[in-house]
Design the sequence.
Protein backbone atom coordinates (compact mmCIF):
# COMPACT_ATOMS: atom_id res chain seq x y z
CA UNK A 1 0.00 0.00 0.00
CA UNK A 2 3.03 2.23 0.18
CA UNK A 3 6.04 2.96 2.39
CA UNK A 4 4.98 4.00 5.85
CA UNK A 5 6.49 7.32 6.85
CA UNK A 6 7.05 8.95 10.19
CA UNK A 7 4.68 11.79 10.90
CA UNK A 8 6.08 13.21 14.06
CA UNK A 9 9.66 13.94 13.04
CA UNK A 10 9.06 14.67 9.37
CA UNK A 11 11.40 11.92 8.11
CA UNK A 12 10.48 8.71 6.31
CA UNK A 13 10.98 5.51 8.23
CA UNK A 14 12.61 3.95 5.22
CA UNK A 15 14.64 7.00 4.14
CA UNK A 16 18.08 8.34 5.07
CA UNK A 17 17.96 12.08 5.58
CA UNK A 18 20.38 14.43 7.21
CA UNK A 19 21.49 14.06 10.83
CA UNK A 20 23.98 11.31 11.59
CA UNK A 21 23.26 9.23 8.53
CA UNK A 22 24.94 11.61 6.08
CA UNK A 23 28.47 10.76 7.34
CA UNK A 24 27.50 7.10 7.37
CA UNK A 25 26.66 7.26 3.68
CA UNK A 26 30.02 8.89 3.01
CA UNK A 27 31.76 6.16 5.01
CA UNK A 28 30.06 3.47 2.96
CA UNK A 29 31.15 5.03 -0.29
CA UNK A 30 34.68 5.63 1.00
CA UNK A 31 34.94 2.03 2.17
CA UNK A 32 33.80 0.75 -1.19
CA UNK A 33 36.31 2.96 -3.02
CA UNK A 34 39.33 2.32 -0.81
CA UNK A 35 38.72 -1.23 0.30
CA UNK A 36 37.73 -2.58 -3.09
CA UNK A 37 36.89 -6.24 -2.68
CA UNK A 38 38.91 -6.82 0.49
CA UNK A 39 37.30 -8.12 3.67
CA UNK A 40 37.96 -4.90 5.63
CA UNK A 41 35.78 -2.82 3.34
CA UNK A 42 32.98 -5.35 3.47
CA UNK A 43 33.14 -5.53 7.29
CA UNK A 44 33.01 -1.75 7.52
CA UNK A 45 30.03 -1.65 5.17
CA UNK A 46 28.24 -4.31 7.24
CA UNK A 47 28.84 -2.35 10.46
CA UNK A 48 27.44 0.83 8.91
CA UNK A 49 24.38 -0.99 7.61
CA UNK A 50 23.73 -2.52 11.03
CA UNK A 51 24.02 0.92 12.58
CA UNK A 52 21.55 2.32 10.09
CA UNK A 53 19.07 -0.48 10.88
CA UNK A 54 19.37 0.26 14.61
CA UNK A 55 18.69 3.93 13.94
CA UNK A 56 15.57 3.06 11.95
CA UNK A 57 14.29 0.81 14.75
CA UNK A 58 14.88 3.58 17.31
CA UNK A 59 12.98 6.08 15.16
CA UNK A 60 10.10 3.64 14.75
CA UNK A 61 9.99 3.16 18.53
CA UNK A 62 10.04 6.93 19.15
CA UNK A 63 7.32 7.43 16.54
CA UNK A 64 5.12 4.82 18.20
CA UNK A 65 5.59 6.50 21.60
CA UNK A 66 4.80 9.92 20.13
CA UNK A 67 1.59 8.76 18.50
CA UNK A 68 0.45 7.22 21.81
CA UNK A 69 1.16 10.42 23.79
CA UNK A 70 -1.58 13.01 24.08
CA UNK A 71 -0.70 16.32 22.47
CA UNK A 72 2.62 15.27 20.94
CA UNK A 73 3.85 16.63 17.63
CA UNK A 74 3.27 13.42 15.71
CA UNK A 75 -0.35 13.17 16.73
CA UNK A 76 -1.10 16.83 16.06
CA UNK A 77 0.49 16.67 12.63
CA UNK A 78 -1.44 13.53 11.84
CA UNK A 79 -4.67 15.29 12.82
CA UNK A 80 -3.73 18.35 10.79
CA UNK A 81 -3.01 16.27 7.71
CA UNK A 82 -6.26 14.34 8.08
CA UNK A 83 -8.22 17.58 8.18
CA UNK A 84 -6.33 19.01 5.20
CA UNK A 85 -6.92 15.88 3.12
CA UNK A 86 -10.71 15.75 3.59
CA UNK A 87 -12.17 13.11 1.36
CA UNK A 88 -14.49 14.33 -1.35
CA UNK A 89 -15.30 10.75 -2.22
CA UNK A 90 -15.42 8.93 1.05
CA UNK A 91 -18.26 6.46 1.19
CA UNK A 92 -18.52 5.92 4.88
CA UNK A 93 -17.25 9.06 6.49
CA UNK A 94 -14.13 7.32 7.47
CA UNK A 95 -10.36 7.69 7.17
CA UNK A 96 -8.74 5.57 4.58
CA UNK A 97 -5.79 4.59 2.51
CA UNK A 98 -2.45 6.36 2.15
CA UNK A 99 -2.74 7.78 -1.39
CA UNK A 100 -2.80 11.53 -1.53
CA UNK A 101 -0.97 12.03 1.77
CA UNK A 102 1.68 14.69 2.10
CA UNK A 103 5.11 13.13 2.03
CA UNK A 104 7.82 14.05 4.51
CA UNK A 105 9.46 16.46 2.11
CA UNK A 106 6.18 18.31 1.55
CA UNK A 107 5.39 16.84 -1.87
CA UNK A 108 2.12 15.04 -2.48
CA UNK A 109 2.38 11.29 -2.75
CA UNK A 110 0.92 9.88 -5.97
CA UNK A 111 0.77 6.25 -4.88
CA UNK A 112 -2.66 4.78 -5.53
CA UNK A 113 -3.94 1.24 -5.71
CA UNK A 114 -6.34 2.18 -8.50
CA UNK A 115 -5.76 3.50 -11.99
CA UNK A 116 -3.17 6.25 -12.60
CA UNK A 117 -4.85 7.42 -15.80
CA UNK A 118 -6.09 10.60 -14.12
CA UNK A 119 -2.76 11.53 -12.53
CA UNK A 120 -2.53 14.79 -14.57
CA UNK A 121 -5.95 15.82 -13.28
CA UNK A 122 -4.81 15.07 -9.73
CA UNK A 123 -1.75 17.29 -10.19
CA UNK A 124 -3.76 20.14 -11.73
CA UNK A 125 -6.44 20.12 -9.03
CA UNK A 126 -3.98 19.36 -6.20
CA UNK A 127 -6.26 16.58 -4.98
CA UNK A 128 -5.27 12.99 -4.12
CA UNK A 129 -5.48 10.65 -7.09
CA UNK A 130 -7.82 8.17 -5.42
CA UNK A 131 -10.29 10.96 -4.66
CA UNK A 132 -10.14 12.14 -8.28
CA UNK A 133 -10.77 8.56 -9.42
CA UNK A 134 -13.77 8.31 -7.11
CA UNK A 135 -15.44 11.54 -8.27
CA UNK A 136 -14.82 10.77 -11.96
CA UNK A 137 -16.21 7.25 -11.56
CA UNK A 138 -19.31 8.62 -9.86
CA UNK A 139 -19.84 11.08 -12.72
CA UNK A 140 -19.38 8.25 -15.23
CA UNK A 141 -21.86 6.18 -13.20
CA UNK A 142 -24.34 9.07 -13.46
CA UNK A 143 -24.05 9.12 -17.25
CA UNK A 144 -24.21 5.32 -17.36
CA UNK A 145 -27.37 5.43 -15.27
CA UNK A 146 -29.17 7.58 -17.86
CA UNK A 147 -28.03 5.20 -20.60
CA UNK A 148 -29.10 2.20 -18.53
CA UNK A 149 -32.61 3.60 -18.05
CA UNK A 150 -33.12 4.70 -21.66
CA UNK A 151 -31.51 1.89 -23.66
CA UNK A 152 -31.79 -1.06 -21.26
CA UNK A 153 -35.29 -0.33 -20.06
CA UNK A 154 -37.21 -3.40 -18.81
CA UNK A 155 -39.58 -3.01 -21.75
CA UNK A 156 -36.66 -3.32 -24.19
CA UNK A 157 -34.45 -5.99 -22.65
CA UNK A 158 -34.55 -8.91 -20.24
CA UNK A 159 -33.68 -8.84 -16.52
CA UNK A 160 -30.72 -11.12 -17.28
CA UNK A 161 -29.09 -8.47 -19.51
CA UNK A 162 -29.77 -5.74 -16.97
CA UNK A 163 -28.17 -7.84 -14.21
CA UNK A 164 -25.08 -8.59 -16.31
CA UNK A 165 -24.52 -5.00 -17.43
CA UNK A 166 -25.07 -3.54 -13.95
CA UNK A 167 -22.62 -6.03 -12.41
CA UNK A 168 -19.86 -5.64 -15.03
CA UNK A 169 -20.01 -1.84 -14.88
CA UNK A 170 -19.84 -1.95 -11.10
CA UNK A 171 -16.81 -4.22 -11.06
CA UNK A 172 -15.05 -2.03 -13.64
CA UNK A 173 -15.57 1.11 -11.54
CA UNK A 174 -14.33 -0.76 -8.46
CA UNK A 175 -11.17 -1.92 -10.26
CA UNK A 176 -10.55 1.59 -11.59
CA UNK A 177 -10.75 3.08 -8.09
CA UNK A 178 -9.17 0.37 -5.92
CA UNK A 179 -7.18 -1.92 -8.20
CA UNK A 180 -6.80 -5.51 -7.07
CA UNK A 181 -8.26 -4.64 -3.64
CA UNK A 182 -11.66 -4.79 -5.38
CA UNK A 183 -11.27 -8.58 -5.29
CA UNK A 184 -12.21 -8.38 -1.61
CA UNK A 185 -15.74 -7.47 -2.72
CA UNK A 186 -16.02 -10.72 -4.64
CA UNK A 187 -14.39 -12.81 -1.91
CA UNK A 188 -16.67 -11.48 0.81
CA UNK A 189 -19.76 -11.92 -1.35
CA UNK A 190 -18.70 -15.41 -2.47
CA UNK A 191 -18.03 -16.66 1.06
CA UNK A 192 -21.39 -15.56 2.35
CA UNK A 193 -23.26 -16.92 -0.68
CA UNK A 194 -21.66 -20.30 0.00
CA UNK A 195 -22.89 -20.10 3.58
CA UNK A 196 -26.41 -19.34 2.35
CA UNK A 197 -26.37 -22.37 0.07
CA UNK A 198 -24.70 -24.85 2.43
CA UNK A 199 -26.37 -23.98 5.73
CA UNK A 200 -30.05 -24.12 6.54
CA UNK A 201 -32.32 -21.11 6.55
CA UNK A 202 -32.79 -21.48 10.31
CA UNK A 203 -29.31 -20.22 11.17
CA UNK A 204 -27.87 -18.78 7.95
CA UNK A 205 -28.57 -15.18 9.02
CA UNK A 206 -26.38 -15.59 12.11
CA UNK A 207 -23.51 -17.18 10.19
CA UNK A 208 -23.66 -14.56 7.44
CA UNK A 209 -23.62 -11.71 9.97
CA UNK A 210 -20.63 -13.25 11.77
CA UNK A 211 -18.60 -14.00 8.61
CA UNK A 212 -19.37 -10.77 6.74
CA UNK A 213 -18.67 -8.56 9.77
CA UNK A 214 -15.50 -10.50 10.66
CA UNK A 215 -14.14 -10.25 7.12
CA UNK A 216 -14.87 -6.51 7.07
CA UNK A 217 -13.22 -6.01 10.46
CA UNK A 218 -10.15 -7.97 9.37
CA UNK A 219 -9.72 -5.75 6.32
CA UNK A 220 -10.24 -2.59 8.40
CA UNK A 221 -7.72 -3.62 11.06
CA UNK A 222 -5.17 -4.57 8.41
CA UNK A 223 -5.57 -1.30 6.58
CA UNK A 224 -5.41 0.81 9.73
CA UNK A 225 -2.67 -0.86 11.78
CA UNK A 226 -0.55 -2.57 9.12
CA UNK A 227 -0.51 -0.13 6.22
CA UNK A 228 -1.39 3.34 7.48
CA UNK A 229 -3.21 5.26 10.18
CA UNK A 230 -5.36 8.31 10.06
CA UNK A 231 -5.50 9.67 6.50
CA UNK A 232 -8.89 10.81 5.23
CA UNK A 233 -9.21 9.34 1.75
CA UNK A 234 -11.17 6.85 -0.31
CA UNK A 235 -10.36 3.27 0.71
CA UNK A 236 -11.52 -0.17 -0.35
CA UNK A 237 -13.21 -0.95 2.98
CA UNK A 238 -15.79 1.79 2.35
CA UNK A 239 -17.64 -0.16 -0.35
CA UNK A 240 -17.19 -3.30 1.75
CA UNK A 241 -19.22 -1.65 4.50
CA UNK A 242 -22.18 -1.23 2.12
CA UNK A 243 -21.76 -4.79 0.81
CA UNK A 244 -21.78 -6.06 4.41
CA UNK A 245 -25.08 -4.30 4.95
CA UNK A 246 -26.55 -5.87 1.82
CA UNK A 247 -25.30 -9.37 2.65
CA UNK A 248 -26.66 -9.35 6.19
CA UNK A 249 -29.96 -7.73 5.18
CA UNK A 250 -30.45 -10.37 2.49
CA UNK A 251 -29.69 -13.20 4.93
CA UNK A 252 -32.20 -11.92 7.49
CA UNK A 253 -34.86 -11.34 4.82
CA UNK A 254 -34.41 -14.90 3.49
CA UNK A 255 -34.68 -16.19 7.06
CA UNK A 256 -37.90 -14.20 7.56
CA UNK A 257 -39.41 -15.44 4.31
CA UNK A 258 -38.40 -19.10 4.44
CA UNK A 259 -37.98 -20.00 8.12
CA UNK A 260 -40.46 -17.91 10.11
CA UNK A 261 -44.23 -17.99 10.21
CA UNK A 262 -46.17 -15.13 8.69
CA UNK A 263 -47.89 -14.20 11.96
CA UNK A 264 -44.54 -13.76 13.71
CA UNK A 265 -43.34 -11.06 11.31
CA UNK A 266 -43.80 -7.33 11.69
CA UNK A 267 -45.49 -5.43 8.83
CA UNK A 268 -42.11 -4.22 7.59
CA UNK A 269 -40.61 -7.70 7.69
CA UNK A 270 -43.56 -9.07 5.71
CA UNK A 271 -42.90 -6.58 2.90
CA UNK A 272 -39.17 -7.33 2.70
CA UNK A 273 -39.30 -11.11 3.32
CA UNK A 274 -37.76 -13.20 0.50
CA UNK A 275 -39.55 -16.41 -0.49
CA UNK A 276 -36.87 -17.98 -2.73
CA UNK A 277 -33.07 -18.21 -2.80
CA UNK A 278 -31.46 -15.67 -5.19
CA UNK A 279 -29.40 -16.94 -8.11
CA UNK A 280 -25.66 -16.24 -8.18
CA UNK A 281 -26.09 -13.53 -10.85
CA UNK A 282 -28.88 -11.82 -8.93
CA UNK A 283 -26.78 -11.95 -5.76
CA UNK A 284 -23.68 -10.34 -7.30
CA UNK A 285 -25.80 -7.81 -9.17
CA UNK A 286 -27.44 -6.79 -5.90
CA UNK A 287 -24.07 -6.43 -4.12
CA UNK A 288 -21.87 -5.01 -6.90
CA UNK A 289 -24.08 -3.00 -9.28
CA UNK A 290 -22.55 0.18 -10.67
CA UNK A 291 -25.16 2.45 -9.05
CA UNK A 292 -24.15 1.66 -5.48
CA UNK A 293 -20.80 -0.11 -5.41
CA UNK A 294 -18.74 2.99 -4.61
CA UNK A 295 -20.98 5.00 -2.28
CA UNK A 296 -24.14 2.98 -1.73
CA UNK A 297 -26.64 3.47 -0.35
CA UNK A 298 -27.84 0.06 0.75
CA UNK A 299 -31.31 -1.11 -0.24
CA UNK A 300 -33.53 -4.14 0.22
CA UNK A 301 -33.20 -7.07 -2.16
CA UNK A 302 -36.90 -7.01 -3.07
CA UNK A 303 -36.71 -3.33 -4.02
CA UNK A 304 -33.66 -3.93 -6.23
CA UNK A 305 -35.12 -6.97 -8.02
CA UNK A 306 -38.42 -5.15 -8.59
CA UNK A 307 -36.46 -2.27 -10.15
CA UNK A 308 -34.50 -4.63 -12.43
CA UNK A 309 -37.68 -6.37 -13.56
CA UNK A 310 -39.53 -3.10 -14.12
CA UNK A 311 -42.18 -3.16 -11.39
CA UNK A 312 -40.76 -1.14 -8.49
CA UNK A 313 -43.92 -1.02 -6.35
CA UNK A 314 -45.27 -4.54 -6.76
CA UNK A 315 -44.39 -5.80 -3.27
CA UNK A 316 -45.33 -2.64 -1.36
CA UNK A 317 -48.64 -1.22 -0.29
CA UNK A 318 -50.37 0.32 -3.30
CA UNK A 319 -53.08 2.08 -1.31
CA UNK A 320 -51.39 5.47 -1.49
CA UNK A 321 -50.93 5.08 -5.22
CA UNK A 322 -54.58 4.21 -5.78
CA UNK A 323 -55.58 7.51 -4.26
CA UNK A 324 -53.27 9.51 -6.52
CA UNK A 325 -53.99 10.97 -9.89
CA UNK A 326 -54.86 8.23 -12.36
CA UNK A 327 -53.33 10.01 -15.35
CA UNK A 328 -49.99 10.31 -13.60
CA UNK A 329 -50.04 6.65 -12.61
CA UNK A 330 -50.58 5.46 -16.18
CA UNK A 331 -47.16 6.63 -17.36
CA UNK A 332 -43.80 5.91 -15.71
CA UNK A 333 -42.60 9.03 -13.88
CA UNK A 334 -39.43 10.71 -15.10
CA UNK A 335 -36.65 11.25 -12.52
CA UNK A 336 -34.87 13.94 -14.56
CA UNK A 337 -36.05 16.91 -12.50
CA UNK A 338 -35.17 15.18 -9.23
CA UNK A 339 -31.77 14.13 -10.56
CA UNK A 340 -30.91 17.69 -11.62
CA UNK A 341 -31.95 19.02 -8.23
CA UNK A 342 -29.87 16.43 -6.34
CA UNK A 343 -26.79 16.89 -8.52
CA UNK A 344 -26.96 20.67 -8.06
CA UNK A 345 -27.36 20.19 -4.30
CA UNK A 346 -24.42 17.81 -4.09
CA UNK A 347 -22.00 20.10 -5.92
CA UNK A 348 -23.18 23.11 -3.95
CA UNK A 349 -22.34 21.17 -0.77
CA UNK A 350 -18.94 20.28 -2.21
CA UNK A 351 -18.28 23.95 -2.95
CA UNK A 352 -19.29 24.93 0.58
CA UNK A 353 -17.05 22.27 2.07
CA UNK A 354 -13.99 23.27 0.03
CA UNK A 355 -14.59 26.90 0.97
CA UNK A 356 -14.95 26.56 4.74
CA UNK A 357 -13.32 23.27 5.78
CA UNK A 358 -9.98 24.91 6.55
CA UNK A 359 -11.49 27.92 8.30
CA UNK A 360 -12.68 25.95 11.35
CA UNK A 361 -10.32 22.96 11.85
CA UNK A 362 -11.64 20.47 14.37
CA UNK A 363 -8.23 19.97 15.99
CA UNK A 364 -8.35 23.51 17.38
CA UNK A 365 -10.90 22.28 19.92
CA UNK A 366 -8.05 20.46 21.70
CA UNK A 367 -5.41 23.16 21.28
CA UNK A 368 -3.94 24.11 24.67
CA UNK A 369 -3.88 27.87 23.96
CA UNK A 370 -7.45 27.79 22.66
CA UNK A 371 -8.70 25.93 25.75
CA UNK A 372 -6.80 28.17 28.18
CA UNK A 373 -7.57 31.58 26.63
CA UNK A 374 -11.04 31.18 25.11
CA UNK A 375 -14.22 31.67 27.16
CA UNK A 376 -16.38 28.62 27.46
CA UNK A 377 -19.28 30.06 25.48
CA UNK A 378 -16.87 30.81 22.61
CA UNK A 379 -15.59 27.23 22.78
CA UNK A 380 -19.17 25.99 22.46
CA UNK A 381 -19.80 28.19 19.41
CA UNK A 382 -16.53 27.13 17.79
CA UNK A 383 -17.31 23.45 18.43
CA UNK A 384 -20.63 23.84 16.64
CA UNK A 385 -19.07 25.68 13.67
CA UNK A 386 -16.16 23.26 13.32
CA UNK A 387 -18.44 20.22 13.28
CA UNK A 388 -20.94 21.99 11.02
CA UNK A 389 -18.27 22.44 8.34
CA UNK A 390 -17.47 18.72 8.28
CA UNK A 391 -20.98 17.69 7.22
CA UNK A 392 -21.16 19.10 3.65
CA UNK A 393 -18.73 16.49 2.30
CA UNK A 394 -21.10 13.76 3.47
CA UNK A 395 -24.00 15.63 1.90
CA UNK A 396 -22.07 15.70 -1.38
CA UNK A 397 -21.27 11.99 -1.46
CA UNK A 398 -24.68 10.70 -0.38
CA UNK A 399 -26.76 13.11 -2.47
CA UNK A 400 -24.74 12.33 -5.61
CA UNK A 401 -25.13 8.59 -4.95
CA UNK A 402 -28.89 9.05 -4.60
CA UNK A 403 -28.98 10.98 -7.90
CA UNK A 404 -27.15 8.14 -9.67
CA UNK A 405 -29.73 5.60 -8.53
CA UNK A 406 -32.61 7.89 -9.50
CA UNK A 407 -31.10 8.50 -12.94
CA UNK A 408 -31.20 4.73 -13.53
CA UNK A 409 -34.86 4.67 -12.48
CA UNK A 410 -34.23 3.24 -9.01
CA UNK A 411 -35.67 4.94 -5.94
CA UNK A 412 -39.27 5.61 -6.97
CA UNK A 413 -41.41 5.56 -3.82
CA UNK A 414 -44.94 6.17 -5.05
CA UNK A 415 -46.82 9.45 -5.24
CA UNK A 416 -47.68 12.26 -2.87
CA UNK A 417 -51.29 13.14 -2.13
CA UNK A 418 -51.16 15.76 -4.91
CA UNK A 419 -49.98 13.17 -7.46
CA UNK A 420 -46.30 14.23 -7.65
CA UNK A 421 -43.80 11.34 -7.76
CA UNK A 422 -41.49 10.69 -4.83
CA UNK A 423 -37.89 9.57 -5.40
CA UNK A 424 -36.77 9.02 -1.81
CA UNK A 425 -36.99 5.24 -1.45
CA UNK A 426 -33.24 4.89 -0.85
CA UNK A 427 -32.33 8.48 0.06
CA UNK A 428 -29.65 8.56 2.72
CA UNK A 429 -30.26 11.93 4.36
CA UNK A 430 -32.60 14.92 4.68
CA UNK A 431 -30.42 17.98 5.03
CA UNK A 432 -32.94 20.44 6.46
CA UNK A 433 -34.23 17.92 9.00
CA UNK A 434 -30.64 17.33 10.12
CA UNK A 435 -29.75 20.99 10.54
CA UNK A 436 -33.00 21.84 12.36
CA UNK A 437 -33.37 18.63 14.39
CA UNK A 438 -34.92 19.21 17.82
CA UNK A 439 -33.96 15.86 19.32
CA UNK A 440 -31.18 13.32 19.15
CA UNK A 441 -33.59 10.80 17.64
CA UNK A 442 -34.72 13.16 14.87
CA UNK A 443 -31.09 13.80 13.93
CA UNK A 444 -30.27 10.10 13.76
CA UNK A 445 -33.46 9.34 11.84
CA UNK A 446 -32.43 11.74 9.07
CA UNK A 447 -28.67 11.09 8.99
CA UNK A 448 -27.40 8.05 7.07
CA UNK A 449 -30.97 6.83 6.83
CA UNK A 450 -30.32 3.50 5.11
CA UNK A 451 -27.69 2.53 7.67
CA UNK A 452 -30.16 3.38 10.44
CA UNK A 453 -32.76 1.15 8.74
CA UNK A 454 -30.20 -1.65 8.48
CA UNK A 455 -29.30 -1.39 12.18
CA UNK A 456 -32.98 -1.36 13.12
CA UNK A 457 -33.91 -4.39 10.99
CA UNK A 458 -30.85 -6.48 11.81
CA UNK A 459 -30.26 -5.61 15.47
CA UNK A 460 -32.71 -3.31 17.24
CA UNK A 461 -35.92 -5.18 16.34
CA UNK A 462 -34.38 -8.60 17.04
CA UNK A 463 -32.23 -8.07 20.12
CA UNK A 464 -34.14 -9.24 23.22
CA UNK A 465 -31.97 -7.40 25.78
CA UNK A 466 -30.68 -3.80 25.75
CA UNK A 467 -31.37 -3.19 22.05
CA UNK A 468 -30.15 0.42 22.15
CA UNK A 469 -26.72 -0.50 23.51
CA UNK A 470 -26.42 -3.48 21.16
CA UNK A 471 -27.28 -1.31 18.16
CA UNK A 472 -24.66 1.32 18.99
CA UNK A 473 -21.99 -1.35 19.55
CA UNK A 474 -22.79 -3.02 16.22
CA UNK A 475 -22.59 0.38 14.53
CA UNK A 476 -19.14 1.00 16.05
CA UNK A 477 -17.87 -2.42 14.92
CA UNK A 478 -19.22 -1.84 11.43
CA UNK A 479 -17.60 1.60 11.10
CA UNK A 480 -14.05 0.42 11.72
CA UNK A 481 -11.13 -0.18 14.03
CA UNK A 482 -10.39 3.34 15.27
CA UNK A 483 -10.89 3.84 19.03
CA UNK A 484 -12.64 7.15 18.40
CA UNK A 485 -15.59 5.33 16.84
CA UNK A 486 -16.20 3.35 20.00
CA UNK A 487 -15.96 6.47 22.17
CA UNK A 488 -18.52 8.17 19.94
CA UNK A 489 -21.04 5.35 20.02
CA UNK A 490 -20.62 4.66 23.73
CA UNK A 491 -21.31 8.34 24.35
CA UNK A 492 -24.27 8.08 21.99
CA UNK A 493 -25.83 5.37 24.16
CA UNK A 494 -25.84 7.63 27.22
CA UNK A 495 -27.14 10.67 25.34
CA UNK A 496 -29.88 8.65 23.64
CA UNK A 497 -31.17 7.31 26.96
CA UNK A 498 -31.10 10.79 28.51
CA UNK A 499 -32.85 12.37 25.52
CA UNK A 500 -35.56 9.71 25.65
CA UNK A 501 -36.11 10.34 29.37
CA UNK A 502 -36.37 14.10 28.86
CA UNK A 503 -38.76 13.73 25.96
CA UNK A 504 -41.09 11.41 27.88
CA UNK A 505 -41.10 13.46 31.09
CA UNK A 506 -40.63 17.10 30.08
CA UNK A 507 -42.08 17.53 26.59
CA UNK A 508 -45.77 16.96 27.54
CA UNK A 509 -45.64 20.07 29.79
CA UNK A 510 -44.77 22.33 26.83
CA UNK A 511 -47.50 21.20 24.45
CA UNK A 512 -50.29 23.18 26.05
CA UNK A 513 -49.73 26.37 24.05
CA UNK A 514 -47.95 27.30 20.78
CA UNK A 515 -45.62 29.74 22.52
CA UNK A 516 -44.47 27.12 25.01
CA UNK A 517 -44.00 24.64 22.16
CA UNK A 518 -41.88 27.18 20.26
CA UNK A 519 -39.69 27.84 23.29
CA UNK A 520 -39.26 24.11 23.83
CA UNK A 521 -38.25 23.60 20.18
CA UNK A 522 -35.64 26.37 20.30
CA UNK A 523 -34.09 25.03 23.50
CA UNK A 524 -34.07 21.43 22.31
CA UNK A 525 -32.59 22.45 18.92
CA UNK A 526 -29.61 24.13 20.61
CA UNK A 527 -29.19 21.25 23.06
CA UNK A 528 -29.38 18.68 20.24
CA UNK A 529 -26.78 20.40 18.09
CA UNK A 530 -24.33 20.73 20.98
CA UNK A 531 -24.93 17.13 22.04
CA UNK A 532 -24.31 15.88 18.49
CA UNK A 533 -21.09 17.87 18.19
CA UNK A 534 -19.91 16.72 21.61
CA UNK A 535 -20.63 13.10 20.67
CA UNK A 536 -18.94 12.97 17.27
CA UNK A 537 -15.67 14.75 18.11
CA UNK A 538 -13.91 11.40 18.78
CA UNK A 539 -15.30 10.12 15.47
CA UNK A 540 -13.27 12.84 13.71
CA UNK A 541 -10.18 12.79 15.94
CA UNK A 542 -10.02 8.96 15.84
CA UNK A 543 -7.50 8.49 18.66
CA UNK A 544 -8.09 8.04 22.37
CA UNK A 545 -5.66 10.69 23.60
CA UNK A 546 -7.08 13.73 21.76
CA UNK A 547 -10.66 12.57 22.38
CA UNK A 548 -10.15 12.25 26.14
CA UNK A 549 -8.38 15.60 26.14
CA UNK A 550 -11.42 17.21 24.55
CA UNK A 551 -13.82 15.61 27.01
CA UNK A 552 -11.55 16.64 29.90
CA UNK A 553 -11.67 20.24 28.71
CA UNK A 554 -15.46 20.00 29.08
CA UNK A 555 -15.08 18.18 32.45
CA UNK A 556 -17.11 15.29 30.98
CA UNK A 557 -20.12 17.53 31.62
CA UNK A 558 -22.53 15.98 29.11
CA UNK A 559 -21.60 12.46 30.19
CA UNK A 560 -22.33 13.23 33.84
CA UNK A 561 -25.50 15.20 33.12
CA UNK A 562 -26.92 12.55 30.79
CA UNK A 563 -26.24 9.73 33.26
CA UNK A 564 -28.05 11.66 35.98
CA UNK A 565 -31.03 12.38 33.73
CA UNK A 566 -31.26 8.77 32.60
CA UNK A 567 -31.19 7.57 36.22
CA UNK A 568 -33.49 10.16 37.77
CA UNK A 569 -36.22 10.47 35.12
CA UNK A 570 -38.39 7.35 34.79
CA UNK A 571 -38.93 5.75 31.38
CA UNK A 572 -41.00 2.66 30.67
CA UNK A 573 -39.05 -0.34 29.35
CA UNK A 574 -39.31 -1.02 25.64
CA UNK A 575 -41.54 -4.11 25.95
CA UNK A 576 -44.05 -2.17 28.07
CA UNK A 577 -44.12 0.67 25.54
CA UNK A 578 -44.78 -1.84 22.77
CA UNK A 579 -47.66 -3.34 24.78
CA UNK A 580 -49.17 0.11 25.27
CA UNK A 581 -48.94 0.79 21.55
CA UNK A 582 -50.62 -2.53 20.76
CA UNK A 583 -53.43 -1.77 23.23
CA UNK A 584 -54.00 1.62 21.64
CA UNK A 585 -54.11 0.07 18.19
CA UNK A 586 -56.58 -2.55 19.43
CA UNK A 587 -58.78 0.07 21.08
CA UNK A 588 -58.95 2.36 18.06
CA UNK A 589 -61.36 0.16 16.01
CA UNK A 590 -63.60 -0.31 19.08
CA UNK A 591 -63.70 3.42 19.74
CA UNK A 592 -64.39 4.10 16.09
CA UNK A 593 -67.25 1.59 16.15
CA UNK A 594 -68.72 3.13 19.34
CA UNK A 595 -68.46 6.63 17.88
CA UNK A 596 -70.19 5.46 14.72
CA UNK A 597 -72.95 3.84 16.78
CA UNK A 598 -73.41 6.99 18.87
CA UNK A 599 -73.65 9.11 15.75
CA UNK A 600 -76.24 6.74 14.28
CA UNK A 601 -78.31 6.88 17.47
CA UNK A 602 -78.10 10.66 17.51
CA UNK A 603 -79.20 10.77 13.91
CA UNK A 604 -82.18 8.49 14.67
CA UNK A 605 -83.19 10.68 17.61
CA UNK A 606 -83.04 13.78 15.44
CA UNK A 607 -85.09 12.05 12.76
CA UNK A 608 -87.68 10.98 15.37
Sequence:
Amino acid sequence: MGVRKERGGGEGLGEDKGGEEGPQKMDVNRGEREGGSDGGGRRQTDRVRRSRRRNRKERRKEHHQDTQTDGQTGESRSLRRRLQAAAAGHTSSRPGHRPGAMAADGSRSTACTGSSLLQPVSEITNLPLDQVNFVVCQLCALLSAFWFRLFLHPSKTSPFIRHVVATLLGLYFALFCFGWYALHFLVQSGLTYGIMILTGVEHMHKYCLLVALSYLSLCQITRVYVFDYGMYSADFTGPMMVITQKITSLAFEIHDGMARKEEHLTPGQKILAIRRMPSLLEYFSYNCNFMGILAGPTCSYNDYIAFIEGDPRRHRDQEADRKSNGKLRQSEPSPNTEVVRKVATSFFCLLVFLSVCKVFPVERNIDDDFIANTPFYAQVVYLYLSMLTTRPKYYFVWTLADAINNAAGFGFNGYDSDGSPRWDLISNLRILNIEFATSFKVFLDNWNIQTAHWLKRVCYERCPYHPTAATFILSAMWHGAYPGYYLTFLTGIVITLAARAVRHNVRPHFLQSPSHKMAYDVITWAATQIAICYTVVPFVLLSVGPSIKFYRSWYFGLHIGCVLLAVVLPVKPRHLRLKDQQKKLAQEPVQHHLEASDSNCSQKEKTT
In short: Residues 99 and 112 are 5 Å apart (CA to CA).
